[in-house]
Write a structure and sequence with these properties.
With about 325 residues, the protein is an all-alpha fold. The chain has 15 helices and 2 strands. Helix 14 runs antiparallel to helix 15.
Amino acid sequence: MKEVHVQTQGIKLAPGRWDRLKRRMWRERFIYLLMLPGVLYYIIYRYVPMAGLIIAFQDFNPFNESIWTNEWVGFKYFLRIFEDAEVIKVIWNTLQISFLQIGMAFPISIVLALMLNEVKNEFFKRVIQSMVYLPHFLSWVVVAGIFIVFLRGEGLVNKFLVDYLGVSAIPFLTDPALFKPIIILQVIWKESGWSTIIFLAALAGVNPSLYEAARIDGAGRWRLLWHVTLPAIRSVIIILFILRLGNVMDTGFEQIFLMLNPFTMETGNVLDTYVYYKGIQQGDVSFATAVGMFKGLVGLVLVVIANRVAKRFGEDGLY
């Protein structure tokens, strides 16, 4: 058979998809290098440890040679979550604290961002921003220490109540009814200022012509806020709200652990601290892993539901 020669002179063959990808990665190599530390962090500390979730389906024995040699028990420990009254109480405490944070701390960040956006004096605005950002950089150990010093029996707050108002000292740190309000107050003081950064960035992107058109129509400051500013940042609020719902079962271990004591354990013990007590102190590793996995699954379900509801109402959503 004669060989068939195809003339390709003057015809530029389209490169393959892999070739295009390699060229693009080389062209944008510095961007990928900037991404590399973050990608490695999530791979090493987030995805690789997920292999240990199989412990939730095993009767874990730390003296075995490998986790693969443990006895498989299926969903035994997941069923125990719904049978243990203590776990139900801990879940209820977690949901209460999380939804109190969403209902109080989250709106305060929006309000604070709107107030800062109305400040016209740039110097004064930057001073206020620096003051409200500063608590974010304090560790929870420092924040808990400050609150304990101020709220203890002989602290500054009780000395003021007794010496100047003539009332009895209040057991702020040992009263179970005051545990949740103190936790919410700590979150508001520490994180509200930092959370305004994204909202301020969104406010900076609002088209000034919208305000001018509204002023021509006779809109005052409150109408500008309600009909221009808030609608302009509504999508950002919804996205951050969806992300916050994903962490509804995560109230923060350090903060709760540092403020807990035997008097407030009944109302303050949450899933994060419960997993620590069960898994580390009592050695019930399989059950603690099952509880932690359950917490993550609940957060995932809430994110998916919230995202679909947002899309149903015409918003962009998270994905």
